[in-house]
Amino acid sequence: MTVPTFAPLPSADAPAGQPTAPIVLDGVSRWYGPVVAVNDITFALAPGITGLLGPNGAGKTTILHLLSGLLRPSSGRVLIGGIPAWRNPSVYRFIGLVPEREAVHAFLTGREFVEMAARLQKLPNPKEAAAAAIRTVDLESAADRAVGGYSKGMRQRAKIAAALVHEPSILLLDEPFNGMDPRQRLHMMDLLRTMAAAGRTILFSSHILEEVERIADGVLVIVAGRLAAAGDFREIRRLMTDRPHTFVVRSSDDRRLAAAFMSEPAVFGTELRDGRLTVRVQEFAGFTRSVARVARDAGVSLFEVAPTDDSLESVFAYLVAGR
Amino acid sequence: MTIFATITSVTLRALLGRRRTLLMLLLAAMPILLGLIVRANDDDLSLHILGQTIDGIVTRTVLPLVAIVFGTAALGSELEDGTGVHFLTKPIDRWLIVVAKTIVAGSLTAVLLVPSTVISGVLMGGLGRDAIGVTFAFALATLIGSFVYTAIFLVLSVFTTRGLLIGLGYAIIWEGIVAGLLPGSQVFSVREYLSGIVTTLAPDALPASSVGAAGFLYAAVVFVLALAIGSLRLARYEVRGAE
Predict the structure, then answer these.
(1) Which residues of B touch A104 (CB under 8 A)?
(2) Other C-beta atoms within 10 Å of A218: how many?
(3) Do A104 and B86 touch (CB under 8 A)?
(4) Which has the closest alpha carbon to A160: B10, B166, B86, B64?
(5) Which among A168, B1, B91, B130 is least surrounded, fewest beta carbons within 10 Å?
(6) Do the Cβ atoms of A37 and B242 come within 8 Å?
(7) pTM for the whole thing?
């Protein structure tokens, strides 16, 4: 993908008429009493797909709610197409929001639900627009059934159809792939790529690295309400990979293997405790390439090599500490 | 279909859930049941007793209860369960949502309770001219009360998730006890406005009300004020339950 994801921030005294980024958060914080949910976040997005990545509870939903005018920023500016999102229903003409909560009026059929969205958007031909949106998300076969009987994935697609029905230039999706089966997930990823290629700005949240990796041009990493990293996905991926890792190794002779590891440049520490060998390495890829060779040269049989800290939370913690 | 019609039709279908409808029908049937019992045991009631009876069963009991249920469910429940977001994230003025939902909730309350009031009034008071006058006065008061009460409870539900509980507290404690003990507080009691409306139209139905004919004005002012406050509040509404 060549579509740029990040855009320059507009200055406060920018002349009127100057083109602005579709999405701007400028020094935005949001707190609930003493609890800070979002802490001084600044970014501007241009058309393309951006992943909002972070562990559960990091503040991703709060950011999407701020962008969709459903929360007031405690400080800073949230601009959609150059105008404030808060208390400004006109922004919903070019925003499509897919909330994480599944809540949809259970008595409506999928078609009625999407038509309702089309009517509330004042579209000239709501039935036709709803039919097109339903076709886009591949929900035609279930469109005339009540939403109350939908699976989680079907509800998700109905919500996406309702968000797309007025062909918004900005699409905000909160954990959009939740509940979808692999085929639906691929279909939705293709759809988002097509929409981004058509010039739309898409921001979606996820706590799953692979989802973001597969479709996002850029990534915003949110940890504990702070923007831990932002930029091209490959760069963030490199940061995540080239960080200190810890492995637990089981072998035929842990003591001899520990000594051998210490001569490796990628390794900066070993520990033998409670009958297990822990190896701390500077660089993930370098160690995984050399571990078999080191064991063979030392005449030791390897039984198991397992990373201990590969959870997303530990990756995020590293990114935050490194800032 | 206009935006207003879209909001009202979805709200109407949401409010007419099976269990809720059944419960509200049972409540609306209570005055009729009482009327049947009175009719089976006695002749027509005197105007004063007729007035006290309809006032006790409709104005003081069934009307606030039905209005609390419909009023808080029309908007507050949707904000609570997340379905309200589908209205809030559309390019429509928030006052339109408040007005449309109040009209639906108020109309449903009135559709259930005005006929119930008329039928029970006729059963208990008969078809004499004065008795019909009392029945009509209560029917009109019930119609007005349906909209005023639902507007208040709907707005309450935008402010708090405990709208149902606080609404019950208002109806039982404020209107039932405080307004009876402190006459000055009656200007803040919808029940008193309705009593004023009834006594203006049928002076023999109830003891004289402290608000009198001003009940019409108070009811209108409170209704408009509730819609205005609800619209302002919804315009600044922030979703609950974010990370």
Answers:
(1) 83, 86
(2) 24
(3) yes
(4) B86
(5) B1
(6) yes
(7) 0.83
